[in-house]
Amino acid sequence: MPEAELINQVTWMIPNPLALIGSRAGDEWNAMTASWITQVSMEPVSVAVSVDKKALTHRLIAEGGAFSINLWDPEDTRVFVKFSKPAKKEGMALNGRPIREGITGVPIFLDAAAWIEATVWQSVDVGTHTLFVGEIVDVGKRRDGRVAGMDDTRMKYGGVKRGGH
Ligand SMILES: Cc1cc2nc3c(=O)[nH]c(=O)nc-3n(C[C@H](O)[C@H](O)[C@H](O)COP(=O)(O)O)c2cc1C
Does the pTM exceed 0.85? Predict the structure, then answer.
């Protein structure tokens, strides 16, 4: 087993996007900052996100059976700090960011540069996290061009498990 610090340094080198994952179960709506997001299959055309079992989002995706991936403007990365804890819903806004209801019921951000909505068809227990694999049921974009990634911030996520994980 390599040294923990080296595992951190090397896994942090993996280029990752940074997006808001929307989730919902009944009256509970949420969105959280996530970086472990990727397409995983062409048929069914599927995307996956790995979600901490302790996160509210984990329960909401498990119960609601769907999630959204909201890709964001690289100039507006402060949003990712705000969504690192359960979001506050006021009317049709989460933490003051306007949302609408997607076709599966999950929140979609009106400010997103582009978005994906997916229904969960596989949930893989991978340890601290569950990899939710979802079939894409809807997509949209407001613009073309680059979207936010981890490298647009000084944030880090991943590596080995720490106390506060
Ligand atoms: C830059 C960054 C990237 C993150 N990526 C993920 C991720 O991919 N998966 C995850 O479960 N949590 C990730 N988190 C942590 C969640 O945002 C955090 O645990 C949040 O509190 C969970 O929100 P919730 O309890 O409202 O669902 C990330 C946090 C930051 C700051």
Answer: yes
